[in-house]
Amino acid sequence: MNDGRQARAALTLLPSGTVLDVPVGSYLQDHLYDHGVDFPCGGMGTCRACLVKIESGAAPPSPADLYELDPRELDEGWRLACRIIVKHDLTLKLPSWDMQILTDTQQSSIQSTDQGLGIAIDIGTTTLAAQLVELSSLEVLDTATALNDQRRFGTDVMSRLDHALRQDTGSAELSKIIQDHIYSMVARLLPDNRKAELSTIHLVGNSAMHHLFGGLDIRSLAHFPFDPGSLEALEYSARDLGWDLLPGTQVRFLPNLGGFVGSDILAGILATSMHTSPEPVALIDLGTNGEIVVGSRQGLICASAAAGPAFEGARIEMGMSAVPGAVSQVSYSKGKIAFKVIGGTEPAGFCGSGLVDAVAVGLDQGFIEKDGRLRSGSVWNLSPTIKLTQHDIRELQLSKGAIAAGFSLVLKEAGLQARDLKHIYLGGAFGNYIHPEQALRIGLFEGSLSQISPVGNCALRGAKRSLQSQSQAEIESLRDLCRHVELATLPGFQDRFAEAMFFEELR
């Protein structure tokens, strides 16, 4: 007899042994994103990133499985998690997950008369990093990190914008998800006995994260020329957001600079003091959208390059995030290829730095031509279990071509050459972990090793600086100093992009 209760199924996740009790008829995707499975294509079944292995239970191949997976993989039980509707108990083997999220450990030397506490938060497309600080000294009292809950709708910005546009309530849904997630991190950081001392929370992120947090109209961001609906800061009180803090606690999402150049880059400029440098310098934040800033105290020019997700391991057949099992470094010695693997485990695939290294080694050893063609055909087997395909290399060429073309065009717009730069700052997680000599080898950008300075999570560092009241005038003058350009409208963009697809060292 039906008592009105919905049927349930048990999902056993290996190797952790976690057992989830879920409704029959629900999508597997909805239950796995908290357990290390990413959905870069937003669950459309087109990217292979959500592969899981059915160890027991029934999950017949979907049309997407039949298209994306080869017969051997299907026979072994591999499936695209985003295509599975739970009908029975299942035991699944998942990839290991323990992503290291980049925070900021650099001690500030800037003192202020401000009193109390502040919280700075870097809202990345993939990760979130927050720090509780004393406002007077910016001393870090506690740190919290997390994976962005919005990633269930895709690991890249455009997938999320697409979801917001396709669903009537998509934008509001994404806004609520990130607001709730940020508040949970604030609550985790803030001791109850110090709530009264918290006066301000500053958020930074790219233009899409800014718009999705604030529930702004994102239609103009989703289509060329990718203009943000607003460049201005978003100002709230804790009461406005329904957060259980003192009602007057101020929450501020810092302003954007233009296009996809968001407040995270503004914060990066503040952290590196580019806007006060007497000599020209550059900042390159490497990610799905590679942001580029060039200039000095005389003026700054900024732009974003649509690099795509290859640097983060997406759309690469054996690509993965920087988690245990990911190849992070590739070298060649005495006729043998060697890997450095995160966690010291057996290699399972490439994260971004490992992918760049592998291609650099392939170029040096003649496995890959400078136009990107594999000499061995469509697949290069680096080991019995690790391979790169011709498609993988083309994906990297697109990403590196966008950055290389963007950097050279911004330099030209500034009337500079790479040799004129005192420093080339590399920001963001990928910029922190990439091996500069290999980045130069594949022609990711112009310059020399002596110019390159990884600066870690400069967005979070700049967000902390912005908490001090004395920084507000500095931020406004910085905005006035900065000019945004849309790369696709610059003369010679298409030709430069085509040239930059070649793997050549740039000087």
Helix content: 25-40%
Shape: globular
Lateral arrangement of strands in the main beta sheet: 8-7-6-9-11-10
How far apart lie the N and C ends? 76 Å
Query: Strand percentage, roughly?
Result: 15-25%
**What is the helix tally?**
15
Q: Based on helices, strands and strand pairing, what is the structural class?
A: alpha/beta
Which parts are unreliable, with pLDDT below 50 for 5 consecutive residues or more? Answer: none
**What can be said about the biggest beta sheet?**
6 strands, mixed
- Tell me the radius of gyration: 23 Å
| Extended strand count | 22
Mean pLDDT: 91
Commentary on this structure:
- The structure is a single chain.
- With 507 residues, the protein is of the alpha/beta class.
- Helix content is 28%, strand content 23%.
- It is built from 15 helices and 22 strands.
- It has helices at residues 29-32, 63-68, 71-75, 157-166, 170-189, 207-214, 238-241, 263-272, 352-364, 390-413, 428-433, 436-441, 458-466, 471-481, 493-500, and strands at 8-14, 18-23, 51-56, 78-80, 90-93, 117-123, 127-134, 140-147, 198-205, 234-237, 250-253, 281-285, 289-296, 299-306, 326-333, 336-341, 349-350, 379-381, 387-389, 424-427, 452-454, 482-484.
- Strand 12 and strand 13 form a beta hairpin.
- Helix 5 crosses helix 6, helix 8 (263-272) crosses helix 13 (458-466) and helix 10 packs across helix 15.
- The N and C termini lie far apart (76 Å).
- The model has no long low-confidence stretch (mean pLDDT 91).
